[in-house]
Amino acid sequence: MSGHVMASGAVQKKKIPSPILGMLLFVFTEIMFFSGLISAYFVIRSRSNFWVPPEGVRLPVLSTAFNTFALFLSGVLLYYAYRLFDMKGKREKALFYMFISFLLGSFFVGFQGFEWVRLFAYGMTLKSNIFSSVFYLLIGSHAAHALSGALAILFVWKGFRRKYQKDVMIALMMFWFMVVGIWPVLYGLLYF
Amino acid sequence: MSHDHHEQSFFSKYLFSTDHKVIAMQYLFTGMFMALIGGFFAYGFRMQLAFPGIEVPGLGLVTPNLYNELVTNHGSIMIFWVAMPVLIAAFGNYLIPLMIGCDDMVFPRLNRLSYQIFLISAIVLIASFFVPGGGFSGAWTSYPPLSAQAKYNLTPLGAPMWLTAVALEFVAFLLGGINFITTLMNSRAPGMKMWDIPIVLWMIVIASIVFMASAGPLIAGAVMLLFDQIYHIGFFNPNKGGDPILWQHLFWFFGHPEVYVVLLPAMGIVAEVITVFARKKLFGYKTILYTTIATGTLSFFVWAHHQFVAGIDPRMANVFTITTILISIPVTEMCFAYIATLFGGSIELRTPMLFALAFLAEFLIGGVTGIFLGSSGSDIYFHDTYFVLAHFHYTFVPIAIISVFAGIYYWFPKMFGRHMNETLGKIHFWGTVIPFNLIFLPLFFLGLAGQHRRIYSYENFPELAKPYLQDLRILATVSLIVMLSFQVVFLFNFFYSIFKGKKAEKNPWRANTLEWAAASPPPHGNFPELPQVYRPPYEYSVPGRELDYWPQNEKA
Ligand SMILES: [Cu+2]
What we know:
The structure holds 2 protein chains of 2 kinds.
Chain A: H1 18-47, H2 61-85, H3 91-121, H4 130-162, H5 166-191
Chain B: H1 10-14, H2 20-50, E1 55-56, E2 60-61, H3 64-100, H4 108-128, H5 150-153, H6 158-186, H7 199-231, H8 244-278, H9 285-298, H10 314-342, H11 351-374, H12 376-382, H13 386-416, H14 422-448, H15 467-500
Antiparallel strand pairs in B: 1-2
Helix pairs in contact in B: 2-3, 2-4, 2-15, 3-6, 3-7, 3-8, 3-13, 4-6, 6-7, 7-8, 7-9, 8-11, 8-13, 9-10, 10-11, 11-13, 11-14, 13-14, 14-15
The structure holds copper (II) ion.
């Protein structure tokens, strides 16, 4: 065999770093997953002549709008932290904003859980009617992603206190922006 | 195995290894084991169809419930636990790093996790055969309301376990897919440009992309179906405001692309084999690549041909008829390119080549009969008959069985450093391919005679219980038993050759691709020094060159 290794090393020049490409593919499948759910929503809604929450229940539209803002802010702060990491001497500040982003993300999930408890108390459960089933399915799927995303921010944050890795930060942002970006769609479809 | 970089215990080497070759072998052996179960199940229900009510040797009386369980899990196993793990995961894991000339996958631990999840999924599935009520019996397509309510399918535990197993299996292949695509993009040997990538790797990677794009909606559907099964929600129950057809759309949005997910790697394996054994350059490399991409893309727009009878707006049925007929164009083009590759080559009929040629011939029959089913007009007559069954077995058996044998016979010397016995290989070839046709050709005729698929015993249907129809059923069953028995030849040859086969050199087939530049079998880390690529993969019989092959890594 006549193997030759380039002077630059064994690996080719990468166009997209592996963690980012891997996450891009993962986010792509997640978007397809949510597309499946959303098309299920449209199919079920179109054949249901009775598409409202159970009697006596009103969805918390306003407080959820506030919660939406918290999630959105969390996304913005994560991006802000990313920009700060690139600047000299802004490491501590970046870590601080990243942590706030985590707190806001967890607040979003916690607040939603609190709303669910109230909805349950008013008698809107998974089985009340097809609307509430679809509601909990879609919002619940998103909440599961938001929870794992928030935990991922915390986990990565802990790692960054030792050493910052730009690729990991970009991958994290891609996942979190997906969570943030899908939310308004679900909010619009299910709360109005 | 030759020396390793560091000493590993048996446990960490074979069970918790992150080496792509070990993971590939784990997938291969698990897939082979599952294939034995799937084959045994087919034997069980075919015996019942040919000889209704007999005590099946080795299985006992096949009751209606058992019959449904066998049919359901035969289909599920062969697609999700044989075709997927062997074609994509085993060959993908083995070939990608070796053929692009790197030492391992980009995410080795993710790769190990992928196999572990896959193994759990297989265990959950097998466990489901032993729970009260038995394994799931609502067909591998799992249509509600049959699949959604235990009072219909009579498998209160088997159904959710089956669904869980399928979902886990999907997660395993999503992780695998991320790895495959990223590795192919980022770890190629220096000098290997886009057009220097062997076609089998393109096909595996494009199949992975198709899988990842189509799996999401089915996972969403699986979550909904699981809720229906366990909490009786009613996403697919019209009485509760749900829609049973919705499942069919979510399932087939995945299910039809899935055909191409397994077809493409099979096509790729065949491309590698025919170029080597015809000693010719692959005809139309770029054409094949573009038709692959076209096939992958089109495969997302054909799914509703499965709803022609279940209920779909006739205008939409026309659209899906057109897309379905359209998709045969790129696939046909691919087959023509392969035949053109063979044309004028110095063909050497070794076992891998025989299987590769059989793949082309048999798959052609599968493809042509598909046209009748893709056209909504004729499909209404053929729907749910044995014609459909014979059609898709003429696609899936070449894909999951014949091409896999081509691949195993071809890469065996690389995998284990020894040769398989050629005579036994040829016996195995004829013992597989002839009975295969004798199983499924009769089933085409039975389908044309109106024989419906999901019937346990035809004795109660006077029109279908005619003796000449029963004779065809017996012919199919006997042929199946013959085909299964010939697999013993393969298993013997395979395991005997691992230990006692003739020693293989580095490049016994005089092939060009990079895996043949590594030792046979390749050690941990694959190459002593990572190769450099100087030319495309199919430079065979180049005029003016003394040797009839020209390895990709050879400088001049
Ligand atoms: Cu189809």
